[in-house]
Amino acid sequence: MMLMRTDPFREFDRLAQRLLDDTAGRPAAMPMDAYREGDTFVVSFDLPGVRADSIDLEVERNVLTVRAERPGPADSQGRDTVVTERPYGSFSRQLFLGETLDTDNIAADYTDGVLTLRIPVAEQAKPRKISIAAGGSGQARQIGA
Description:
Small_HSP; HSP20 family protein; HSP20-like_chaperone; 8% helix; A-crystallin/Hsp20_dom; Immunoglobulin-like
């Protein structure tokens, strides 16, 4: 498995945040998709309205941390807000990556409010053929994927 696990309480936190409207002091949720495409593991995060220079990526011991900041409206004085549904402030998400991923070669791209990470599968985790000598004949044949 490429992605070992995510926070099991993430959905509960999102629901509680919506019901209680308690955004102060807690990072907002960051929706994500993750899938394998050939020998690459792809993870995409929705970060609309976030400037690329406010995004921070860090990998430590196979834990990938994504942080971003989305500033609120510049001038809120004199405003009579009717609806506020768009989250502002700090966003953070951690993913626990499997040992089979090459975390030294992560490529990141930020286009149209979507941060896409491409993480290659480590060479040692890729399927390979193994030569086996057949019954003392000394001749090897290929077996495997």
